[in-house]
Design a protein that fits this description.
Blueprint (H helix, E strand, L loop, with lengths): L2 H19 L3 E9 L2 E8 L7 H16 L5 E4 L5 H11 L4
Parallel strand pairs: 2-3
Antiparallel strand pairs: 1-2
Length: 95
């Protein structure tokens, strides 16, 4: 982990994660490439209808304030593998 990711994690710890934790969620940094930060929500924040608003109004605001050179913060949305597995079992009448 390079210093920049450590610095980003520090900002997230101080200014973002407490708000997400209050809603039962968190954010993880997936990577930083060409001045674009990729993040994913976990817990209750994953798949939340307000996820994009939260990314824009909370994460992007705090990260851009601390690191003005970051051009974009992209919210990567992925379906939870456990949820997919359960769906396959239901469709295959295994549950």
């Amino acid at each position: 982990m390079n210093t920049t990711i450590k610095q980003i994690e520090s900002v997230l710890d101080a200014k973002v994660r407490p708000s997400l934790a209050a809603h039962g969620g968190d954010v993880i940094v997936l990577g930083l490439e060409q001045d674009v930060l990729k993040v994913r929500f976990t817990g209750q924040c994953s798949g939340c209808p307000a996820a994009h608003s939260t990314n824009e109004e909370l994460i992007s605001l705090e990260i851009r304030e601390a690191f003005p050179w970051i051009r974009d913060i992209i919210l990567v949305e992925e379906t939870n593998p456990e949820l997919l597995d359960m769906a396959h079992k239901i469709l295959n009448h295994q549950l």
